[in-house]
Amino acid sequence: MNDSDRSAGSAGGTGGTGSAGGPGGAAGSRRKDVRRNQQTLLDAAAAIFVTSGVEAPVRDIAAGAGVGVGTVYRHFPTRADLVIAVYRHQVDACAEAGPALLASSPTPHAALERWADLFVDFLVTKHGLAAAMQADNTGFESLHAYFLDRLLPVCTDLLDAAAAAEQIRPDLTAYQLMRGIGNLCIGTERDPDYDARRLVALLIAGLRQPS
Question: Which end of the chain is more exposed for a tag (fewer CB within 10 A), N or C?
């Protein structure tokens, strides 16, 4: 985030001191608005990071979210704050998708395929994170721990369900699969002719139990 963006951000701030009419009143409504604005910003930032990297101008993120630059700075005062929040937001979305896909997909293997697609989206979105976090090794390590804590159990449940249905071989761990998908995604941002998603789809198809 640069100084010109920050100046625009300061000018774009909003005040407002309305009275909170008690629990569940104006204060509760404001909290909901804050959460909604934050989620919209994180979705917009994630989409822009995919195409422009984590150094994308704040004004582009604000425009994508349909808010002023000042709103971005109120939620995320620094670039690192925004990148970390997007990372955690994407991890949470990926984690929450696992059980939902198992419940709604025609088969556990289909749920695994759809989840792998979401995981690829996440991995592509986080390209550039290491550079953005270069000065904060502790912060980066804590994010990696969060990533494993949230996603390994979800991936394990998907694999266990598909194996129990005898749709895939039972001898693959969640860590192995996630590491394999991650390796297939390396270099995606530098080579427009490389289709990581197709390679990952072939990997998931290859897990099928021989009939």
Answer: C
Q: Pick from 105, 84, 138, 130: which is nearest to 204 by CA?
A: 105
Coil, strand or helix at 19: coil
Query: pTM of the entire structure?
Result: 0.75
Residue ranges in 53-136 assigned as alpha helix (H): 58-65, 69-75, 79-104, 108-125, 129-132
> What b/e string do you get for 125-148 counting C-beta neighbours within 10 Å, with b at 16 or more?
bbbbbeebbeeeeeebeebeebbe
DSSP H or E run through 143 = helix 137-164
Q: Measuring CA to CA, how many Å separate 5 from each of 2, 72, 73? A: 5, 10, 9
pLDDT digits (tens, 9 = 90+) for 6-53: 444 444 444 444 444 555 577 777 777 777 878 899 999 988 887 787
Provide the 3-class DSSP secondary structure of residue 132. helix
Rounded to a whole number of angstroms, the distance between the first and last alpha carbons of the chain is 55
Residues 6+ apart with CB under 8 A from 152: 174, 175, 178
Q: What is the pLDDT of residue 132?
A: 59
Q: Which of 55-69, 101-115, 145-159 is least confident?
A: 55-69
Q: Are 40 and 72 in contact (CB under 8 A)?
A: no
Residue 87 CA from chain centroid, whole number: 5
* Structure tokens that stand for 173 in this block: 């761990």
Place of tokens 């592509």: 124
Cα distance between residue 168 and residue 123, in whole Å:
24
Look up residue 102 and give its two tokens. Answer: 């198992």
